[in-house]
Amino acid sequence: MKRSGADAKLVDRIAGDCIAVRVRLINRVISAVYDEALRPLGIRISQANLLVAVARMGEARPVDLCKVLRIEKSTLSRDVEVMKGNGWLESDPPVGGRNQVLRVTPAGRDLLARSRPAWEAAQAEASRLIGAPGVDALKEIAGRLGLGTPAG
Amino acid sequence: MKRSGADAKLVDRIAGDCIAVRVRLINRVISAVYDEALRPLGIRISQANLLVAVARMGEARPVDLCKVLRIEKSTLSRDVEVMKGNGWLESDPPVGGRNQVLRVTPAGRDLLARSRPAWEAAQAEASRLIGAPGVDALKEIAGRLGLGTPAG
DNA sequence: ATGACTAAGTTGTATATGCGACTTCGGCCG
DNA sequence: CGGCCGAAGTCGCATATACAACTTAGTCAT
């Protein structure tokens, strides 16, 4: 069962053009850069993102975070659980009731402040890897996809 | 504990500039587009990517796949396990020896062929969401990050 | 040839991610 | 006021992802 002509064409087309292949690879490589830089601090870039989003909102309702970050509610629920366990987030009321709001704890704020140098280093490395035009393009794309637009 | 000036600046800087935030959001949104389109076929875009990569190589050694896809060896090991279970990949020898090679099964090839329309639809939708210049930029970035370059 | 070293793969553990099903509040309608 | 409905959250399940530790199989030097 060798690659017949039609198969090869399809395979080459997907491998050569697929947007998802590229987006996913970029995600792995870039996330690794930030994770590596942040590792000494015990936080991952996914968690730092969430921490920043909550900090930005002051008091964040889970459903709003989901809209802003384009994350599924069940995913957010579990991410928050881990971060509460780490002492970086707290909710009011503590139990997963209905109109709970999330807040960054003092420990969370402290961690964020201490993370700055590592974040800056990762950001510089990512910029170098991607190139300035690429960075601009990513910002443009993320904006198109609704970054920061609660109303999806 | 309200947002003091310094905190707000740091938070705004990260939220406003962080490359990882954007890359990860793009990844979630775009992967969802492909996953949704492929769902009726019972395959995910991550798996389709792997299937295509193996098909392209003909006979693929895991370690080479890891280099090409920039995936950790343990991740690949488990992804392959699932895909063997689904009958899309086979290895020779079957047990996880040393110089095993992976091959796409006839069922895997058939699935790939049947997936084409869904993939094309997802590709079109992703292009629309991202915009033509953005698509070009993503290709350029992925190339810079070594897409298709076995030697990392 | 044999022992040391190294590279390749697997397994344990943890997090990230999403779908589907379920639960439980809140608000609205009569 | 009481019941219904829909939205918000949680939980079960499956996969994707990576690090650390371990296993094993080639390789290489003597």
Briefly characterize the structure.
Two copies of one chain form a homodimer. The first copy, chain A, has 152 residues and is mainly alpha-helical.
Write the layout of secondary structure elements.
The structure is a homodimer of 152-residue chains.
Chain A: H1 5-17, H2 19-38, H3 45-57, H4 62-69, H5 73-85, E1 89-92, E2 101-104, H6 106-130, H7 132-144
Antiparallel strand pairs in A: 1-2
Chain B binds a DNA duplex (30 and 30 nucleotides) through helix 2 and helix 5.
Task: Give your account of this protein's structure.
Two copies of one chain form a homodimer. With 152 residues, chain A is mainly alpha-helical. Chain A has one domain: Winged helix-like DNA-binding domain superfamily/Winged helix DNA-binding domain (Arc Repressor Mutant, subunit A). Helix content of chain A is 69%, strand content 5%. The first copy, chain A, has helices at 5-17, 19-38, 45-57, 62-69, 73-85, 106-130, 132-144; strands at 89-92, 101-104. A two-stranded antiparallel ribbon of chain A has the order 1-2. Chain A is globular and about 60 Å long. Chain B binds a DNA duplex (30 and 30 nucleotides) through helix 2 and helix 5.
Radius of gyration of chain A: 19 Å
Share of helical residues of chain A:
55-70%
CATH homology superfamily of chain A: Winged helix-like DNA-binding domain superfamily/Winged helix DNA-binding domain
Number of domains of chain A: 1
CATH fold-level topology of chain A: Arc Repressor Mutant, subunit A
Helix/strand class of chain A:
mainly alpha
User: Which CATH architecture of chain A is right?
Assistant: Orthogonal Bundle
CATH class of chain A: Mainly Alpha
Largest interface: A-B, 65 and 65 residues
Task: State the distance separating the first and last CA atoms of chain A.
Answer: 46 Å
On the 0-100 scale, what is the average pLDDT of chain A? Answer: 92
